[in-house]
Amino acid sequence: MKNLFSKTKLLLLGLLLQGGIASAQQFITLDKAMEIAMEHSPSIRTSLLALERSQQLLKAQKAALKSQFTLSLTPVEYSKNRTFDDYTSTWYTNESFASYGTFTVAQPVLLTDGTISLVNQFGWQNSNSTASGIENKVFTNTLNLAIDQPLFTYNKLKLELKTLELDLENSNLSYAMAKLNLEKQVSQYFYNVYLAQMSLSIAQDELKNTKATYEITKNKVDAGLSAMEELYQAELNYATSQSDVQNQQVSLDNAKDIFKQYIGMDIFEEIMVMTDVNVNPVEIDSKKAIEYGLSSRMEIRQREIDVESSQFDLITTKAENEFKGDVALSIGLIGENEKLNNIFETPTRNPRVSVAFNVPLFDWGEKKARIKAQEAVIQSTQLDLEEEKKQIIIDIRSVCRTLDNDRMQIDIAKQNERNAQLTYEINEERYKNGDLTGMDLSLYQTQLSEQKMAYAQALIDYKIELLNLKVQSLYDFEKQEPIVPQEIIDASKQKK
């Protein structure tokens, strides 16, 4: 018996050639569909944008840890004020015109969360006061080296950097998961179109047989060998088959539109999917599948990232209303002179030391309540992690059972399809010999069509479920190789 699906593809191709539209259709394989989806799928593009966002935020944070150079310019600053002097009990007018700029180099210190900065302000000032009657024109320059260091608190720079690193890792995991889910969904939609093509092909085949039966019946009735009611039944069967072909065509067009939308193709482009659904049963080791699933499933690492992130939130929560301090040290020179060359002729030193503490006294239990709330969040994320592991084990065990069942269903469906084909051929001869009514033959024809579709569905169910196991365990049992490289799995174990 020739392969059912090879005949189906030849039949479909022949129908297209007869219709004169084969050149207008694009033939799509599953691999081709995946290529198109990876480039145009909205879900993949969204994941890529999220990944790019995380990459750029981490890049920006690392750039912020380098020396920051800023230049602030004030070309013109003019003021004229009327002021009362309490000492002399007189009013005087002060007029000032200045132009200056400030150059700053700031270097964050990742190790201590402090900042070292070098600030130089250079300018020129012209001021006069009616109180003294003297006009003062001088160049000024202030140079300071400062250190600002927080005390007794967490390192915000390290925490922000680690948070963004985890966010990038999470985005990478989400993108990898999106690709796996895309493969599964594309395959599902692809095989939906294939099954719709199969249904249309079988309906057309049934229509062809029904038409032949109708012509035989008509000839028998015209020759007076059969009753008129046989012709009425044959006409009804023929009309039903024509309607079924039209219905299957509508279902195929709808399946194609959904498929094209999902992979990002032009909705108006005509396509036809081509594939070989024959399967070679694969031996599945459920223990091995569970082992790889628990060691490399990205959802587990995402739950671990959630736990780490919630612990970071606990750190910031504990820092609210906490005892902390700040130390500020600064040394510098101030120079001023009417002549630019002599600006540091008699400089003034300006050291500055500041030590400040924040001592919380009483917050009515606010901090304690917030800490307990965040600890509850941590416990919740840890429970999510444990439940995720359990769910992975359950899902993999379920898929393995389904695959075993699907293999049995394939054998049963194949035998049923063969028996239905033989049964139809035998009863077709009986009908031609006048030993069977058209209504009875129609039932055998329907049975054959149903068994053909059941066999095709059983094969596709097995392929989809095998792909589902690949997604669940991150191990390809067809190729006998892990999806995630071993070195990445080992690195993940070291993190734990």
From TrEMBL:
<dbReference type="InterPro" id="IPR010131">
    <property type="entry name" value="MdtP/NodT-like"/>
</dbReference>
<keyword id="KW-0732">Signal</keyword>
<feature type="signal peptide">
    <location>
        <begin position="1"/>
        <end position="24"/>
    </location>
</feature>
<dbReference type="Pfam" id="PF02321">
    <property type="entry name" value="OEP"/>
</dbReference>
<comment type="similarity">
    <text>Belongs to the outer membrane factor (OMF) (TC 1.B.17) family.</text>
</comment>
<dbReference type="InterPro" id="IPR003423">
    <property type="entry name" value="OMP_efflux"/>
</dbReference>
<dbReference type="GO" id="GO:0015562">
    <property type="term" value="F:efflux transmembrane transporter activity"/>
</dbReference>
<protein>
    <submittedName>
        <fullName>Outer membrane protein TolC</fullName>
    </submittedName>
</protein>
